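re: the backbone from monday

yeah here it is again, tokenized this time
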């Protein structure tokens, strides 16, 4: 049985001030506002300012989550940042965030790299570490500066992504609104790594040069779409069955915000009205690991997530990874 002794105590989010519209992209690409909306549901996305880092955005979202939870940074003993666009290959962005927030030196800080599923992976990891009894309060952050890894001449990818961060504080339940983590499910299919990847820059191809793959996102969109619909549906069904929660009991579904057609397909297959899905990708695009915590925070502030509600989180990402979580508020 799941241990319900830890809960989401506060949420926070951040998106850069700079908004890039579809019309702006159409000035340099063979595309249009109508083309992008009809195929993705995205109208605009936020882009980080020059010099603004992933850790800057992560720290901003984390401060909001700490304030919402009524908890000081000094009481955090675990920081996990889910990201594929860390400030640098080493050290972990979580350590940089630790310093920016003033989290004490006895805290454990590290990054999780599961792409767009990263937040659910990080949530599961933090929950398990708290259950071990060795940690008391965790900051779990999803943050991405995807604008730094885009080919701005490739309309198949650059129109999809944006920059943002979202964060939650997890700890022993307190009075007031909190979300008990009922359970999580994680999966991966490493046989399809080439469908969505950044091939250059790792140990396989550490330096740019002739014949070396690029250091930006490459995606086989049709194949990724099929995988996302199939595996997000399976991940959602598995967790609902495992924890004996019916689709009718789910008040709000917060899916990874990648493509509106994917969300519509999942709603159809799960037989959950699309009106119960929280969608903000029209304003933020795909923010990878930031996607779900950004949406959780906004959904709470808009009253789409209320005390007593059961929320289903479900995501997919490069790896290929996918996963789900249930939270009861």
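seq for it, each position gets an aa:
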């Amino acid at each position: 049985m799941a241990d319900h002794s830890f809960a989401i105590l506060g949420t926070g989010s951040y998106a850069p001030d700079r908004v890039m519209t579809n019309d702006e992209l159409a000035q340099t690409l063979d595309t249009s506002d109508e083309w992008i909306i009809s195929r993705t549901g995205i109208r605009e996305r936020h882009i980080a300012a020059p010099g603004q880092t992933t850790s800057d955005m992560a720290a901003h979202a984390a401060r909001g989550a700490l304030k919402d939870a009524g908890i000081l940074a000094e009481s955090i003993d675990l920081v996990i940042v889910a990201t594929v666009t860390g400030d640098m290959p080493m050290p972990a962005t979580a350590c940089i965030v630790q310093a920016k927030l003033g989290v004490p030196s006895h805290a454990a800080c590290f990054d999780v790299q599961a792409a767009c599923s990263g937040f659910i992976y990080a949530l599961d990891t933090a929950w398990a570490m708290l259950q071990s009894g060795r940690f008391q309060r965790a900051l779990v952050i999803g943050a991405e500066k995807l604008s730094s890894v885009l080919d701005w001449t490739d309309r198949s990818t650059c129109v999809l992504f944006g920059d943002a961060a979202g964060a939650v504080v997890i700890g022993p339940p307190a009075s007031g609104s909190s979300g008990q983590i009922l359970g999580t499910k994680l999966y991966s299919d490493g046989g399809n790594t080439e469908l969505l990847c950044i091939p250059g820059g790792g140990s396989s191809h550490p330096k740019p040069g002739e014949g070396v793959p690029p250091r930006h996102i490459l995606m086989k969109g049709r194949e990724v779409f099929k995988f996302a619909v199939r595996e997000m549906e399976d991940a959602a069904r598995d967790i609902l069955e495992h924890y004996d929660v019916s689709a009718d009991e789910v008040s709000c579904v917060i899916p990874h915000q990648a493509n509106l057609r994917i969300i519509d397909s999942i709603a159809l297959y799960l037989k959950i009205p699309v009106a119960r899905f929280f969608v903000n990708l029209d304003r933020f695009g795909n923010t990878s690991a930031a996607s779900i915590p950004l949406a959780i925070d906004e959904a709470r502030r808009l009253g789409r997530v209320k005390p007593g509600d059961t929320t289903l989180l479900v995501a997919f990402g490069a790896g290929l990874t996918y996963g789900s979580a249930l939270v009861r508020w």
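The mean pLDDT is 93. DSSP finds ten helices and 13 strands in the chain.
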